[in-house]
């Protein structure tokens, strides 16, 4: 029976240095060789995950579930499916709250990730 193995990135697959431990890479390869599916599930946006594969920080992954489940990326076909997105009305509400409460707002899209800081600075709270 084929199984799906899903992993978080930060502090799970990746060390504090931003790379996978050699034993982790061996385990991912073994799981793949046995015919199972490896998936990364993370809050990071796609553009923050793909560079890990360019530097070989991680390997043997089949799918990326990005932006807290809003997008699924197929590593083999290099295609994606958007599962969820915000309507302009909802985005306006979020933007108003960001401004009102001096929050940090993270915005992910297919080709970029942006972080908005109140007054351009990290809040002191």
Automatic annotation (TrEMBL):
This protein's name: COF family HAD hydrolase protein
Transmembrane segments: none
Lineage, top ranks: Bacteria, Bacillati, Mycoplasmatota, Mycoplasmoidales, Metamycoplasmataceae
Hydrolase keyword on record: yes
Keywords for this protein: Hydrolase
Cross-referenced InterPro entries: HAD-like_sf (IPR036412), HAD-SF_hydro_IIB (IPR006379), HAD_sf (IPR023214)
MF terms in GO: magnesium ion binding; phosphatase activity
A GO term from the CC aspect: cytosol
Required cofactor names: Mg(2+)
Organism: Mycoplasmopsis edwardii
